[in-house]
Structures are given as structure tokens and as C-alpha cells.
Amino acid sequence: MRHADHVLLVPGFFGFGSFGRPGGPRIVYFDRVMKALVSARRELRGRIHVHEPPPTGSLETRVRSLQDALLQLLGGALLRGESRRGRPRIHLIGHSTGGLDARLLLNLRYHFKGEDPALRERLAEHVGTVVTLSAPHHGTPIAGSLVHGLSHLLLEGMSLATILAAAGQLRRRLGLPGLSFLVSLFEAVAPRRNVNAPAIALLAGMDEETARQIARFRGMVMSDTRLLHDLAPERMAQLNARLGEGELGRLVQLVTVAPRPTLWAGLHGLDRRAAYALCYAATASEAFRPDRFPVGPWIAARKPGTERAAVEDAPRANDGIVPASSQTLAGRAARLVLADHLDVIGHFEWRWNTTLFKSGAGFGRREFMALWRFVAEAL
Questions:
Q1: What pLDDT shows up at residue 304?
Q2: Which pLDDT value is given to residue 27?
Q3: Measured at the alpha carbon of residue 350, what is the angle toward residues 302 and 258, in degrees to the nearest 5?
Q4: Are 78 and 121 a contacting pair, CB within 8 Å?
Q5: Homologous superfamily assigned to 1-142+225-379
Q6: CB–CB of 9/49 below 8 Å?
Q7: Cα 210 off chain centre by
Q8: Alpha-carbon separation of residue 69 from 27, 125, 136, 330 (angstroms)
Q9: Residue 24 has what pLDDT?
């Protein structure tokens, strides 16, 4: 890294920056990630930023919004055409679809409406390392599952559940036996019911200002769901065939994969195991391509050499949202992480937080710090 470099974190599907009042408790997408990065590299302090893309808008709108964010960070440096030597750079770290956004912005064969090719080419020269974490480079079957029929109820429920689980204020409700949390959530998003700010505040036990922010965000989610179509495996296969792998040499690709769901392990956490099982089943597909399990060194809580035995074979192997074989362009990972889709951004079970999923991956604070230390050192 150079002295003037910055880092931009790019959220994925349902992605947000944070919710909450100034000076009050906040709900954060990249929970404790900034602290972990700064702990590994102190020079990053004050130079890490979070992008807020259209949460479920099309890939085109997401990539365009990422370009705008980079231009804003770079300020006049890009327009002045500063020399290559000593020019400021932005390192991109994208989780889930955020990693795909970063990769597509870097690939100049990917075009979007209204782009300025010359400006974009100059912008690419200011992009440093691009880290993709749990990225659906080849799409994901769960996207197709969410497009049809009653799945919009699931989509609305998932958007709310993801945020509420991130709040860390659901320990009490998530600790209740059985499916109490999922039942209350389903009641909240049932047809012809409006989940307004007071309802969210009551459900999550948070202040109404934060609840209003969440209600507005959920309105954005439900008003534009084009991303679901874009992430369908057949659509991504067509896109990849057109783009090639021109940006492959500049990517650091990290893969997450979690064990096959186990529902019957007692009542504690049954709701979270059920949520994980539903999403895992919608993601696992024998027909998914590519079907080769990625190759690479592991970050895992298990004994070294036993990590691979904990998960299914590709193409069914996934992290609850994205198949493992979708998360690299050429089948090789900088690291394979035994974790579910939300663990790696700080939403795992530990004393500071809770999570939507209970996947049995065993991912904890030690693995979280090891992962983000590796990312920091890769920049």
C-alpha cells in the first residue's frame, strides 16, 4: 500500500452501510471489519470507507454507483490526470454481490448506460487490489428461487431478518425455543400487511428513528429487484462468456463454504438453523455450473486437514447463499473459509453479536481476525 491509498468496502445483496442515530447504537453491515483491518495495519486508520449501493438494483446500476463512489473519493486527482507515480489508489473489498460489482467495474469489456470509456479507463488505473469475498461470479440458484411466486414474501422477510439479526438486539428473541422469531417475522411480512417503522421498532426493540431508516431501506429493496434476475446462473454464464477473464490477475478471490444443514440438534437456535437450511437448500443444485470445488489453503476452526470433509461436494456445496464453485473465476482461491455467508462480515455468534444463520461452521473470533488480517496484508 502507498501512503495516500484508501480502502472501499462494498456490501452485497441487501447491502447497507449502517442504521442508527448519531452517538447511539448502530446496525452495521461490515460489523467490526474496520477494526479488524486497522488492527492488522494501523496505517489504514481513517482511510476505510463503506459504499452504499442500490441494495437489490441491477448489476448495471450497482456498478455505476460504485464508479461514482470512486470518483468522489478520488476527487480532482483523476480529472487532473495525475502521473502514475504516486497517484492515489483505492483498494476495493467486496462482499457477495459487492465483489462482483468491483470485478465488473475493473473489466473494461463490461459496459453500462451513460459511461464515459476514457474516464473509466483512467479510473481503472487508480484501482489497486480488488478482493472478492463470497462473490457470485457465476450467479447463484437462490436468485432464481426468489424471483417467482410467493418468494417475494421470503425476499421481504430476508431483508428484514438480515438487518434485525445484524442489530445484535435479537439475542432475547432468537434465544426463545422453536420457530418464534421466524413466526413473528412471517406475521410481519404477510400479504397486505405493511411493516412500518413502529412495527419494526416493536419487533426489534429499537428506537423509531432507526426503525424509520430501516423501513425506507426496505422500500428500496422491494421497489427494484432486478438484481435477482441478473444473478440467475444462466444470465451470469452469458455475461462471463462475453467478458472473459481479463481482470483475473488483479483479483484476490476468497471462498466461503459451510456444512450441510442439521436441524435436529435441540431447540436452542432451531429458528436460525431453519433459516440456514431453507437458504442452503435453495442454493444447492446438482445442475449448477461450474461444478468443481475450488482449490486453496483454508481458514477454519477445525483441525488442519479435516476442513474439506466438513462440506458437501460441488456443485451443491455452498455458504447458504452462493455456491462455493461460483466464488472464483478459474477454480483457485486465495483462501477457502469454513464459514457461512454472513459469518465473514462479522455476523457470527460471539459475545458482541448474533446472526441470522446457525450453520455449524464453527467460525469464531479467531477465524474472523485471521481472515481480515489476510485481507489487510493482501492490499
A1: 93
A2: 72
A3: 40
A4: no
A5: Alpha/Beta hydrolase fold, catalytic domain (3.40.50.1820)
A6: yes
A7: 22
A8: 22, 15, 22, 29
A9: 61
Q: What is the DSSP letter of 66?
A: H
What is the distance between the alpha carbons of residues 198 and 204, in angstroms, rounded to a whole number?
10
- Give me the pLDDT at residue 19, please: 61
Q: What are the extents of the domains in the chain? A: 1-142+225-379, 145-224
Helices (H), the chain: 33-40, 59-74, 76-80, 97-106, 117-125, 141-145, 151-166, 171-174, 180-188, 197-204, 208-223, 226-230, 233-243, 270-283, 365-378
pLDDT of residue 82: 52
The span from the CA of 5 to the CA of 379, in Å, is 10
Pairing of strands 26-28, 48-50: unpaired
Positions in the chain short of pLDDT 50: 83, 149-151, 153, 155, 168-193, 202-203
What is the identity of the amino acid at 63?
V
Residue that has been written with the C-alpha cell 418464534 in this structure: 180
Q: What is the pTM of this model?
A: 0.84
**Cα–Cα distance, 152 to 226 (Å, whole number):** 13
